[in-house]
Structure formats: C-alpha cells, structure tokens
C-alpha cells in the first residue's frame, strides 16, 4: 500500500531562446520549461509529472500544481487508481479552483502535471511503462479511466467498449510490434524552426533524411516569399516523388481568410497539412479552412493548444480537422487523452500528437503506442524534436525513423536532479544557470 505524503513542485527552464530553438511565427523566443510535480510517498517510489511551457509564467503553473496536488496528499494510490474516472472528476471539482478554468488554461495545465505524476507513480509500483498498463486493460477498464460527462453526445461508454472490443483480436500482435520498436514512426521538426538560417535548415534536413525520417515539418507564416524559398529548399532535399511528406505549421498567426489565401499560394509544395492555421478555439474557422483547401489536397491539423476534450469533440463532430494533435499535458493528463483517442477513432481521424518542447516526446511515445496497440490499430506518425533529452533518466530514442518503445517503469519524464538544480528558476546562487552572467541577455533583454 502506497500513500502520497507530500507534493512538491519545481520550476525548471532551459534557455533555448539563445539559439532560436523552438522559434515560429507566433513564438519568437521560447525558453523550454517544465512546471514539475513530484509526488512523494511513504514507499521507495515517487511520481513525476510535468507540464510544458515556454518560460515566463511557468511559476504560475507551479503555483496551480501545488494547489491541485494538495488534493491527493494523504491519499492511497490504490484508491486513486481503482476508479480513475472518479478520481479525475474529483481533481476538477474543487469549486474555487474550478472557477479559474474550468478545465482549461493554467489550472488545466497544472492538472496535466498532477494526473501524469499519479500515472507515473502507479506505473513504477507495477514495474511497467504507462503504455503497457493501458494495453493490458480490458475495454471496460479502459473506459473506466474516462470522465464521460460532456462527451456522451459524441461517444458513449457502451459504444467505446464495443469499439475497443473490435480491436482486441489484433492487440497481441501489435504489442509485439511495440516490443520490436515498430509501433510509432517519427516525424521531425528539428530542421524547421523559423529562426534558423537557410544553410542550417538544409543541413539538418539532409541529416534527418539520412537518419531514416520520411516526414518533415517546417514553420511558416512570416511572408509568402520567405516561405516559398524555404519550402523550395526543403523539396530540393526531400524530393516530390521519393515517398517523403512535407508538413507546415503556422502557429495561429492567421485569420481564417488569410490562412486560406496564404496556403493556396504554398499549394505547389504539396504539404500534407497546415497545422494551427488560426485560433485554436475556432472550430468553425478550421472547418472553413479545411473546406477551402480541400481542392488543393491540403489537410488541416490542430490540437497542441486545444484546451480540453470538449473542443476536440467539436472539431471532430464538425469535420473541421484531418489530423488530431493531442498534447500530453495541455489536457488533463492520460485520462483525458484516452477520451480523445476514442473520439478520433470514431470519427476516423488519425492521431498525430504534438511533441517536442521539453519532455513531450517522453510522454507522447506512450500515448501513440496506446493509440496503435489499443484504440486505432493503425500506424500513424509522432513528432520528434531532438532537444534536451539528455536531462531525463529515460529519454525517448529514435532508431531507423521509429520511436524506441519505452520499457522502463513509469511515464518517462523523471528529470535528473542535477538538471533540475542547474536550470531551476530563479534558482540558487552558484548553482543555477539563471544566476550566471550568461543569463543576463535573456533576463534583461526585450520581452517578445
Ligand atoms: Mg505546432
């Protein structure tokens, strides 16, 4: 029996704005950050969960994590996971904290960290990776993890159980694929940041092509002329007829008509999809863009800033997206993601999680494996960005263009203590990078 004794938070920030890693049309200079939740227990185990932000404001998420995590202090792990759906509902039901959401924004980012820390703790006590716990669940156990309130007009518990049962016959075979590291093909955004120069971009594209990738994503949205040049270079490297896919990402910079007009002008480069063409809340806007770009064979993708399962439900019900990009911690952790996997399956839309940042590939490798093994039964692709993995005990690893399926117990985001100390913000004098001279350009620079 494991009891959660005390929850602690850590504010960890990596100075990625220095070299423009992560730069796109909306986010010019992000410092990849983790708002961290650690659940200490009366046993040898501790649960580690985090939420990803890009710097300033990370302390607000840490505050929210402290408030939410207090709700599980003194609780037995066994009780929390024996009816997960109820636990999840309990965690969103502190009426005063709910007021500052509900189920969206900072409080929901914090929920993701807390819920995922419980999954990590549970998986460690069972000596299994998170994906395997879900893979070994019966359809009834799977749906019991989900709070179905607000989504029964799209999918009911009974329908979900039927759907999962239909995929059961091939499950053992797909688990073998997972064990052989053939469950999750990767795509890369490493070359595509907007702040990278053309030579750096070309070199990185060639490098990733040589490493076995077939899907490449580039940021767009500064100007049509600029983007045409960048996409020409990309197509020069990856070709048009060599089975390689090009995707583009605008990070919400356009209005709906602008997105349509802009993308028509980039259609000659044959992108598979345009990601985040406009506001993540605009369900009907995405639908209009999708319909306008259909004759050009360009799909619409979104999800990394989709705040909860309700918006995903609407995007799917309205036929507004071709690709569903769940985020491991913008939503309320594993449980809410499972709800979206089910809805996406029902509406026939592939899951291509948002990944990258810091810690996201470590999380999403589990989620894509669950989608393949348990829910969709189909191979998809998962974003991979090769930054900051060295800070984790069990980093995600790509081999031959596939994610290496995580086999270590837990949810893979436990960060090395020395990394946490070194990049803690504001941090301790003589320990934290943020107290060093090197940090001054960021701390005293223009806030963009
Ligand atoms: Mg994106």
From TrEMBL:
Gene Ontology BP, a term: amino acid catabolic process
Record GO terms (molecular function): L-fuconate dehydratase activity; magnesium ion binding
Superkingdom as given in the UniProt entry: Eukaryota
Pfam family, one: MR_MLE_C
Any coiled-coil regions, as ranges: none
InterPro entries per UniProt: Enolase-like_C_sf, Enolase-like_N, Enolase_C-like, L-fuconate_dehydratase, Mandel_Rmase/mucon_lact_enz_CS, Mandelate_racemase_C, RHMD-like
All copies of domain Mandelate racemase/muconate lactonizing enzyme C-terminal, residue ranges: 198-296
Keywords associated with the record: Lyase, Magnesium, Metal-binding
Cofactor list: Mg(2+)
SMART domains per record: MR_MLE
Annotated protein name in UniProt: Mandelate racemase/muconate lactonizing enzyme C-terminal domain-containing protein
Organism whose genome encodes this protein: Aureobasidium subglaciale (strain EXF-2481)
